[in-house]
């Protein structure tokens, strides 16, 4: 029996640890060609080896590794260029990478680090790679997404809170997801865009913010489902919790807020979109 994902290419950001690493390995086991991203060269090398072991015997092409610090817009652009040069088409882009910063730190571009990695980076990366994407864009958000947005304090300069910065970034991801889905639909593109809560999974990032809770990483399959489930083909502009369509915070569906964030991120990142 042929591996179900044979011939498909998936690009997973933040694939050296946690849910991203687990997803990359599960994809390879089903025959997919997996493009593995991470920030540390040594850890990327280890992750690629683990993905290759997981895919042994599946018939898929060997995985390939890419190194970039998503806190740097210049490195995000370079990452997109390297991925496009390595693989002219990407069936599914999984924006999995994320951080939970305990202290206020700024990126080299002047953004609060949570915002830089969780919001600006996937926005720019998706813009740069969109013409190569064939099927799906998946954005890993969170059930912890904020229910409101303070436009005057996006960079957390008035009283930093790690949880507030993280929750804000997850709301921004939802706003970006829904606006992109609408743009793709209006352009007649077959590409879908959805976001999801990956579940309460005992990762290092979750432990940093909430303590050691949740299911083991090896049981975290909602991200994989959003990226591969044939039943979701054609489903776009949705938010999934527990593998099912759920209702996001009401502000995430506000078209004016979606467009306001989009314009702001275009200014911040210099992203040029094909839709």
UniProtKB/TrEMBL annotation:
Keywords assigned by UniProt, alphabetized: Oxidoreductase
Gene3D superfamilies for this protein: NAD(P)-binding Rossmann-like Domain
Gene Ontology terms for molecular function: oxidoreductase activity
Pfam families named in the record: adh_short
Annotated TM spans: none
PANTHER family: PHOSPHATIDYLINOSITOL-GLYCAN BIOSYNTHESIS CLASS F PROTEIN, PHOSPHATIDYLINOSITOL-GLYCAN BIOSYNTHESIS CLASS F PROTEIN-RELATED
Name by which UniProt lists this protein: Short chain dehydrogenase reductase family
Gene source species: Chlorella sorokiniana
Taxonomic lineage from the root: Eukaryota, Viridiplantae, Chlorophyta, core chlorophytes, Trebouxiophyceae
């Amino acid at each position: 029996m042929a591996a179900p994902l044979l011939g498909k290419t998936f690009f997973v950001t933040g694939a050296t640890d946690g849910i991203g690493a687990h997803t990359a390995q599960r994809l390879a086991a089903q025959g997919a060609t997996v493009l593995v991203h991470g920030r540390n060269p040594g850890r990327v090398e280890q992750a690629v080896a683990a993905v290759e072991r997981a895919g042994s015997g599946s018939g898929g092409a060997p995985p390939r590794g890419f190194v970039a610090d998503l806190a740097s817009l210049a490195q995000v652009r370079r990452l997109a260029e390297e991925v496009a040069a390595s693989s002219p088409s990407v069936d599914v882009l999984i924006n999995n990478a994320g951080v939970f910063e305990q202290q206020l730190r700024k990126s080299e571009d002047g953004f609060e680090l949570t915002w830089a990695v969780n919001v600006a980076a996937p926005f720019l990366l998706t813009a740069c790679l969109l013409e190569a994407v064939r099927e799906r864009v998946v954005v890993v958000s969170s059930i912890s997404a904020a229910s409101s947005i303070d436009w005057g304090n996006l960079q957390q300069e008035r009283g930093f809170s790690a949880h507030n910065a993280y929750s804000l970034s997850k709301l921004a991801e939802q706003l970006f997801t829904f606006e992109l889905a609408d743009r793709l639909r209006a352009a007649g593109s077959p590409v879908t865009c959805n976001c999801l809560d990956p579940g309460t999974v005992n990762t290092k990032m979750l432990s940093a913010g909430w303590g050691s809770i949740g299911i083991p990483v090896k049981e975290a399959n909602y991200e994989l489902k959003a990226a591969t489930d044939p039943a979701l083909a054609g489903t776009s502009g949705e938010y999934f919790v527990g593998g099912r369509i759920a209702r996001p915070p009401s502000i995430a569906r506000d078209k004016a807020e979606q467009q306001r964030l989009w314009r702001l991120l275009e200014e911040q990142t210099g992203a040029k979109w094909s839709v």
